[in-house]
Write a structure and sequence with these properties.
Length: 586
């Protein structure tokens, strides 16, 4: 039996071997599966090749000269117009991974003088970001100083500036990826930011800077690490909501835990628990996204899709880079062999507060039912620049409660249209409360004193809504209570359910799925007097796919004629779910 470290390196070799042929003579990439290339892809390739070199010391693979390929990709990236700063950051770290200084770096020796000058110029340019792009600035600063292109090291200052903004936008110290609008886009990119900066610091020429900044990073990264026991499902599914979940929802979480174990951020008595989480996360990643027959990462096919901006090529090189890092990290943390010590699953409900201020409250409600295996993530967060179903506040539980990736649909939520204002009880709350209810049930409540539209703008003076989710075993109830402040006409009411199937090939035995009885959804109270429409069959529609499988049916509850809503009256929608939770067979 291979050790985990060797297994990771074998997978990285296979992924690189399948994708190195896509690197063109000019350093750009040939896209896969009729996709379009991204401007930052050469940088991702360079970083993957650099990490492979760090992990193995090898300079060739399947007849390819890796030093030459890295030099070509770095050259392509630094001459990209307009500059892709994210790609530059990856390329800079890739270059640094081949050697800590210009004098001892085989890739730097291959670069022509014009490219070297261009690197100096591009790394000098510094924008300022409020979102995860600030991590790329940190990486550029690390590379610039480490290569001796600057005597002044900006790394510490940039990290401190990022931390100041975290404290300004999150009372709990989580990473807000929003740059405009309502704010509070707490998503997977928070995890990615800390993983990326920690990797950059490991390459810093001055280890003293790394040692000084690690306590700062720990303060914030530790918050994400502590959510993992409640976040990760029994079958190993990791971060499941918001843009870029899926394969990256596994990879970023694995990296964060391994870094935390390496840096001593996880106490000794907690390590067995985190080794088990790590094992499950990796197994889910391996079985769900790896084509085991050919050995490459498979993001898209007829049954599933991925975040629209993530290309298959980029994901393969990113995965190879991560696998090389995991291989190195696992040696330092001495992962135990044999069956890990596991804790018996228990039924639990927990609300992770991301931000609590006078203006808004946001967070993530996590519920797990030990008996059925139902495990849901309800995010109450901003969706950022583009609204999709991924970040809406309904129980995200792939296999049972599914949603279409990259498109908007009011999944398990009422959408109310008043003239040109389309509102949904999402994005923010006030008076968020969670606790134990009758018969050991868990509840999650929040209010919206002002309704909010799909552009995440508060619609002042229109009305308010109170929301309550109740979980009792595998049964779920959702109540939405609306009041208006003056008489108003509701033009349309809409509510949607999506029914999907697990992937026919890429799936984990034991994952929760819907049985023959389906969601067993019943509307207990509907003051909007809406009607179920004919079931929409979307099996052949490529727009209706998830990260995990194909959506086959959409069911809409609709009122498409006006309703006069009057002040002083509470309009309720109460929906009960008794899903037939089955188990995916291997």
């Amino acid at each position: 039996m291979h050790s985990f470290s060797e297994q990771c390196l074998d997978m990285a070799r296979s992924m690189l071997a399948h994708n190195l042929d896509s690197i063109q003579p000019d350093g750009t990439l040939l896209p896969a599966n009729n996709e379009l290339s991204r401007a930052d892809e050469p940088g991702h390739v360079a970083y993957a090749l650099g990490e492979f070199f760090r992990a193995t010391g090898e300079t060739s693979l399947k007849g390819h000269d890796l030093i030459d390929l890295a030099a070509r990709c770095i050259t392509a990236q630094v001459f990209t117009e307009p500059a892709a700063e994210n790609g530059l950051a990856y390329a800079a770290l890739g270059l640094l991974a081949f050697g800590p200084s210009k004098e001892r770096n085989p890739v730097w020796e291959r670069l022509v003088e014009e490219t070297r000058e261009r690197i100096d110029k591009q790394l000098l340019h510094r924008s300022d970001y409020d979102n995860h792009w600030q991590a790329f600035n940190v990486a550029k600063a690390v590379a610039r100083f480490s290569f001796g292109l600057s005597k002044k090291d900006e790394t510490s200052r940039l990290i401190e500036r990022m931390v100041e903004r975290i404290n300004q936008t999150s009372s709990a110290g989580f990473f807000d990826d929003a740059t405009s609008g309502f704010g509070g886009n707490f998503n997977l990119y928070g995890v990615m930011t800390f993983v990326f900066i920690r990797s950059a610091l490991q390459l810093h020429a001055n280890s003293g800077v790394r040692d000084r900044k690690l306590p700062t990073l720990r303060t914030y990264a530790e918050k994400y690490i502590k959510t993992m026991p409640d976040l990760v499902r029994a079958d190993g599914l990791g971060w499941a909501y918001g843009r870029a979940a899926g394969a990256y929802g596994q990879m970023h979480c694995i990296s964060l835990i391994l870094q935390g174990l390496r840096d001593g951020w996880i106490p000794d008595d907690q390590k067995p628990k985190y080794f088990d989480i790590l094992r499950r996360l990796f197994l889910y990643f391996y079985q769900t996204y790896l084509d085991q027959e050919h050995g490459f990462l498979d993001l898209r096919d007829d049954e599933r899709t991925a975040y629209e901006k993530h290309t298959t090529r980029m994901a393969n090189f990113d995965a190879a880079r991560y696998l090389c890092q995991w291989s190195r990290l696992s040696k330092t943390v001495h992962m135990p062999s044999g069956a890990p010590k596991t804790e018996a699953p228990r039924t639990s409900g927990r609300f992770v507060i991301f931000d609590k201020s006078n203006r808004k409250e946001q967070g993530l409600f996590l519920y797990r039912d030990a008996a059925s295996g139902l495990h849901a993530q309800i995010p109450l967060v901003s969706s950022g620049t583009k609204l999709t179903a991924d970040s809406l506040p309904f129980p995200h539980c792939p296999g049972v409660f599914d949603w279409p990736n990259n498109v908007y649909l009011p999944v398990m939520l009422p959408e109310l249209t008043f003239g040109d204002q389309v509102t949904i009880p999402a994005f923010y709350g006030r008076n968020c409360v969670t606790g134990l209810g009758l018969r050991n049930s868990f509840y999650f409540r929040y209010e919206q004193p002002e309704l909010i539209n799909l552009n995440e703008e508060l619609v002042k003076g229109l009305g308010s809504v109170k929301v309550q989710w109740t979980f009792s075993g595998h049964q779920i109830a959702a109540e939405f209570a609306y009041t208006v402040k003056q008489q108003v006409t509701l033009d349309k009411f809409r509510f949607a359910l999506a029914i999907a199937a697990p992937h026919s090939k890429y799936r984990v035995a034991g994952s929760p799925a819907l049985g023959a009885q389906g969601l067993r959804c019943s509307v207990a109270k509907d003051d909007f007097q809406a009607n179920w429409q004919e079931t929409e069959i979307v099996s052949a529609d490529p727009a209706y796919r998830t990260n995990y499988g194909k959506i086959h049916y959409i069911q809409h509850l609709v009122r498409d004629h006006p309703l006069i809503m009057r002040p002083g009256h509470v309009y309720r929608l109460l929906v009960n779910y008794d899903p037939d939770v089955a188990v995916v067979e291997g």
